[in-house]
Amino acid sequence: MKYKRILLKLSGESLMGSQSYGIDPVRLDEYAEQIAKVAGQGCQIGIVIGGGNIFRGLQGAAKGMDRIQGDYMGMMATVINSMALQSALEAKGVKAALLSALAIDPVCRKMSSSRAVELLEEGKVVIMACGTGNPFFTTDSGAALRAVEIRADILLKGTRVDGVYTADPEKDPHAVKYKELSFSQAYEQKLKVMDLTAFTLCQENHVPVYVFDMDTPGNLEKVVAGQEIGTLIR
């Protein structure tokens, strides 16, 4: 096992699976199975999930909704996804704790770095909801912040694409995959991996980012073991 402690960022859209909205129970189970295997090997796992499968603040703002209210609604969507993943993990016998940037009693406890680290060291998977707890920040920024706070060895961004390409591989058949990139290269080439706030947090705090295909069962285990199946940014 190459990484002892990871921060896994999952997108809400990925949880839709083959559906057009909400949570696909098959995809949820696949994710829980992958996480359970890695947790069983002794890896300490922190998780941040987006909420785009339910609601996005920017989408609401585009339709005339107040951006701040919309962003808080998006945070609530991440709580729903986090609760679903927690339940799926516990069904597999994995101890999982849910923390939130916003206090939501009795659903979950308030996020604090010391509490998260303590739970990780107890062997629990720690799911951290509500992003940074502030409007105008993405869950990518929330993931970067949590990775720094828990002193993760790496931030793993699980997507439906197997890495970072010169162009969108779903649109450009000539797109070339990067094996490794520097943060500066990603900035200069305007590669849309994470937002700039998230990138800057990772760069300034020396947290590498690894982008890989989470939708293929077994890939999380391969990445944690050190197999090069995605793109490393550092």
List keywords for this structure.
single chain, 234 residues, alpha/beta, nine-stranded mixed sheet
Commentary on this structure:
Helix content is 38%, strand content 17%. It is of the alpha/beta class and 234 residues long. The longest helix is centred in the middle third of the chain and has 25 residues, at 67-91. Helix 1 packs across helix 3, helix 1 (25-40) packs parallel to helix 8 and helix 5 packs parallel to helix 7 (196-204). The chain has helices at residues 25-40, 57-62, 67-91, 113-121, 139-149, 183-188, 196-204, 219-225; strands at residues 5-10, 44-49, 96-100, 109-110, 125-129, 154-159, 180-181, 209-213, 231-233. It contains 8 helices and 9 strands. It is globular. Strands 4-3-5-2-1-6-8-9-7 form a 9-stranded mixed sheet, with helices on both faces.
Give the helix proportion (percent range).
25-40%
- Cα-atom radius of gyration: 17 Å
> How would you state the average pLDDT, rounded?
94
How would you characterize the largest beta sheet?
A: 9 strands, mixed
Question: What's the count of strands?
Answer: 9
The helix/strand series, from N terminus to C terminus, equals EHEHHEEHEHEEHHEHE
**Helical run tally:** 8
Strand content: 15-25%
* Shape verdict: globular
Give the helix/strand class.
alpha/beta
- The parts where pLDDT drops under 50 for at least 5 residues are none
Distance from first to last alpha carbon: 20 Å
Q: Order of strands in the sheet with the most strands?
A: 4-3-5-2-1-6-8-9-7
